[in-house]
Design brief:
This protein is an all-alpha fold. The protein has one domain. 68% of the residues lie in helices and 0% in strands. Helix 4 runs antiparallel to helix 8 (192-207) and helix 6 packs antiparallel against helix 7 (165-187). The longest helix has 28 residues, at 86-113. The N and C termini lie far apart (64 Å).
């Protein structure tokens, strides 16, 4: 005769390491989507709430820079654009540039800016730079309103190339996100990263065809300019808007592959640093 205690053996839990893209924990981001939405809106409103004009600064800032650059480069230095009036040319470039610069700046400093809450509450650390990226993206989309109005004002009708605009905009998102995430993870152990950004941005501003059309660059130097991925993106962006000279298709393909690879590599690097980043912040 045997006795049955009625007590089942406890279940066995096996924890296996994740491989491939599962290591990035992207599924966790979806589970925290409400938190991401809340933090993005709080970030945007918190940035402009203390000001009198509020969210209007999203379009006032690029319009002010457009006026300054138009006076200095367009009027005083005589820089001419090829297809559209120079103010419209400049505005299209500086709005995209502000997105890139703002995304990299805010993403790089996002971890140190949120060190207090990161030490108290757990959530996927990738949310922190992701919120900075999405906040800048919202600002960029809002800043396109004056550009659309300029198309109507100058009675300019875009061609079929406008269909490729989301592609080049996505390339800029990849470029800014990849660099920002890399630098955010790197800044955990190397705080000097943030200080090196200002001169680097100043150099990139003038080395990329933002304030001048690429047609002003001699043909012998143009291939060197396209070594800068930002040059390819800006030129492709303007080609999509109004049919300016298109970047070489081979260069576009190379830049696309490099940016996708760099973005995925940045995510893996961030995950590796994530394990100990709170200890260094």
């Amino acid at each position: 005769m045997s006795l049955k205690t009625g007590i089942d053996s406890p279940p066995t839990i096996i924890i296996e390491p994740e491989h491939g893209l599962r290591r990035l924990g992207l599924r966790d981001l979806w589970e925290y989507r409400d938190l991401i939405r809340y933090l993005v809106m709080r970030n945007i409103h918190g940035r402009y709430r203390p000001t009198n004009l509020g969210l209007l600064w999203i379009i006032i800032t690029p319009l002010a820079y457009m006026t300054i650059y138009s006076l200095v480069f367009g009027l005083m230095l005589g820089v001419k654009s090829d297809k559209v009036p120079y103010p419209m040319f400049v505005y299209s470039g500086i709005t995209l540039w502000f997105f890139f610069q703002g995304t990299v700046n805010r993403t790089t400093s996002s971890l140190t800016s949120n060190r207090g809450i990161m030490k108290k509450v757990y959530y996927p650390r990738l949310i922190v730079p992701l919120v900075a990226i999405l906040s800048e993206l919202v600002d960029y989309v809002a800043s396109l309103i004056p550009l659309v109005l300029m198309f109507f004002y100058y009675r300019f009708i875009p061609g079929f190339t406008i269909l490729t605009l989301p592609f080049f905009a996505l390339l800029m998102v990849l470029a800014a996100s990849a660099l920002g995430i890399w630098l955010a993870a790197l800044s955990v152990n190397t705080p000097d990263v943030g200080l090196a950004l200002r001169p680097s941005f100043r150099a990139l501003l003038y080395l990329s065809p933002i304030l001048y059309p690429i047609s002003h660059i001699p043909d012998s130097w143009r291939s060197f300019v396209y070594l800068n991925p930002l040059s390819t993106i800006f030129q492709g962006y303007r080609w999509a808007l109004w049919g300016e000279e298109s970047p070489p298709i081979l260069i576009v393909l190379i830049v696309t592959v490099l940016l996708i690879s760099g973005f995925v590599a940045a995510l893996f690097y961030f995950r590796r640093v994530e394990r100990t980043m709170v200890d260094y912040l």
